Every structure is written in structure tokens, then in C-alpha cells.
Amino acid sequence: LAAFSRPRQGGIRAIELDEGDELIGVALTDGTKDVMLFSNSGKAIRFAEDQVRAVGRTARGVRGMRLKSDQHIISLIIVGSEDSEVLLATEKGYGKRTKASDFRKIGRGGQGVQAIVTSGRNGLAVSASPISQNDDLMLITSAGVMVRTLASEISCLSRYAQGVRLINLDSGSKLVGAEQVK
């Protein structure tokens, strides 16, 4: 954080991004947590934060997850405890809660493990968020419809499950996001 303590009026560069790349998340941690990255193909990777070496402020960083050409990262989550849960949602309105402990730690830079099935029924993964049973959840569609629901109403399922219907979508509409309401 010391590298960001004296910002200029026009801002300061935080990371060097290649053309076509985008920043999807930033998190403050204490150096002892696990990092989880989720891709739109329904894969997730979990690794210890200390596997990411400290680099300069304008460096590109290190590889977190190996992706195929048609894949991209949709979410970054810092695991608070083994009891924490992740809400996964897909573009066709399906989703589930899964315990963080279901995701084993592997070295960073791998392809990850299955987090949610991205079959014809589900479509691609669009969201992965930390959540607890007591939270509310906001679902947002491409048609601008927003639905608020209780996280406790969503089944807690294994990594291999397809999930349950979170929202009924209009024809041609897709789920674009699912976020925890604080």
C-alpha cells in the first residue's frame, strides 16, 4: 500500500495491462489467505496467497489461472474461512451455493477444477461471489430486470452439480450478474 500513498492529481498507474486485458478484482489481505479465481467456463482455482510474489507497482503480475482462448476470468475471491460459501451463477439463470472447502488448493497457474457445470442448460458462468446463508442476493438480467432473493433459499450443492433455477428469464434475456447485498 505504501506504493499508493502519494497519488498524483492525474492518478498513478497501478498495473500494466496488455491490450484486451481488464482488471476484474482487487482485494486487501493479510498475507495468509487463499485466493480463488473463477472463469466463465465454470472452472475455479484456489491457491495460497503467498504463491504470488510481490512485484513493482507497474508490473504485469504473475499468472493466476491458465485459460483457453475463449475463456476469461469472471471473479476474484479471498477465502475468509473454510466455512465460507461461494455463490455461482450462469447466464441462463441457474446457480448454487458451494462451500469453499470443496475447492482443494492447487498451485497457481493451472486450469482449475470444475466449479459449476456449463452445459447447454446452464450456459456460461457469469458470477462468483462470497456469500453466507444470512445474506440477500441481487440478480440482474440483460433486460434490466433486478430480483432480490435470500441466499438461504438457494441450495448448497457440490462442485459437480448443475445448480438450481435462480431466476426465470424472458426470451432472449440472460443473467449478467449476481451480487451479495450488504
The level of helicity is under 10%
Distance between the termini: 26 Å
Radius of gyration: 17 Å
Q: Give the H and E element order.
A: EEEEEEEEEEE
| Sheet with the most strands, sense and barrel status | 4 strands, antiparallel
Number of helices: 0
Mean pLDDT: 90
Percent of residues in β-strands: 25-35%
Provide the low-confidence segments as ranges: none
Shape: globular
Major β-sheet strand ordering: 3-1-2-6
Total beta-strand segments: 11
Could you characterize the architecture of this molecule?
The mean pLDDT is 90. The strands form three sheets. A four-stranded antiparallel beta sheet has the order 3-1-2-6, with no helix packed on it. With 182 residues, it is mainly β. It has no helices and eleven strands.
What are its keywords?
182 residues; mainly beta; 4-stranded antiparallel sheet; 33% strand
In short:
With 182 residues, the chain is mostly beta strands. It has strands at residues 34-39, 43-48, 73-79, 85-90, 94-99, 113-114, 125-131, 136-141, 146-150, 164-165, 175-181.
SSE map:
Layout: E1 34-39, E2 43-48, E3 73-79, E4 85-90, E5 94-99, E6 113-114, E7 125-131, E8 136-141, E9 146-150, E10 164-165, E11 175-181
